[in-house]
């Protein structure tokens, strides 16, 4: 096992995704959870899929920057848009996830952007944790 760099601690209370709350031990995260209106819920709060997408997008930005630095590719503006989709698996009555990660970047060509996305997907801890477990689609848009 590798050396521990950081451990995040979060707690979800009450009804979880259906009206609960999620907080971090340092107090910086404190959100109300709700089933989205798109799923027949009341809305009015965030949900695990949004939180996962935000975490993965943030981590993936760091991975893109790391790969770009190693390849000496200068980056100006960039964003990563993560879409995490919840699927109802009618075969076993459970649920599964899929994800789309799209890099939006300026100042480089499409081939370089594609290379950065593929490299970032190899080093991002979220990508490593989900590899082989959920369908992931990668993309890059150069402006």
Walkthrough of the structure:
This protein has 143 residues and is an alpha+beta fold. It is 30% helix and 30% strand. It contains three helices and six strands; from the N terminus they run βββαββααβ. It has helices at residues 48-70, 110-123, 125-130; strands at 10-13, 21-24, 30-32, 78-89, 94-105, 135-142. The strands form two sheets. The chain has a three-stranded antiparallel sheet with strand order 1-2-3, with no helix packed on it. A three-stranded mixed sheet has the order 4-5-6, with helices on one face. α1 (48-70) crosses α2. The longest helix has 23 residues, at 48-70. It is globular and about 50 Å long.
Q: What's the pLDDT, averaged over the residues? A: 95
Helix/strand class: alpha+beta
What are the secondary-structure elements, in order, as H or E? EEEHEEHHE
Uncertain stretches of 5 or more adjacent residues: none
Instruction: Find the count of extended strands (DSSP E, 2+ residues).
Output: 6
Q: Any idea what the shape is?
A: globular
* End-to-end gap: 41 Å
Number of helices: 3
The order of strands across the largest sheet is 1-2-3
Indicate the radius of gyration in whole angstroms. Answer: 17 Å
Residues in helices, as a percent range: 25-40%
Defining key terms:
three-stranded mixed β-sheet, alpha+beta, single chain, 3 helices, 6 strands, 30% strand
Draw up the topology in text.
Elements lengths: L9 E4 L7 E4 L5 E3 L15 H23 L7 E12 L4 E12 L4 H14 L1 H6 L4 E8 L1
């Amino acid at each position: 096992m590798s050396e521990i760099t950081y451990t995040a601690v979060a707690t979800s209370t009450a009804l979880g995704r259906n009206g609960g709350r999620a907080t971090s031990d340092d107090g910086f995260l404190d959100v109300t959870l709700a089933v989205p209106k798109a799923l027949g819920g009341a809305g009015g709060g965030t949900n695990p899929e949004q939180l996962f997408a935000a975490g993965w997008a943030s981590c993936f930005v760091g991975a893109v920057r790391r790969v770009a630095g190693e390849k000496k590719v200068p980056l100006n503006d960039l964003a990563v848009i993560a879409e995490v989709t919840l699927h109802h698996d009618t075969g076993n009555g459970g649920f599964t996830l899929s994800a789309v990660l799209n890099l939006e970047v300026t100042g480089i060509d499409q081939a370089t952007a594609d290379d950065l996305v593929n490299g970032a997907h190899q080093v991002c801890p979220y990508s490593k944790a989900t590899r082989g477990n959920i369908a992931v689609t990668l993309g890059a848009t150069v402006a």
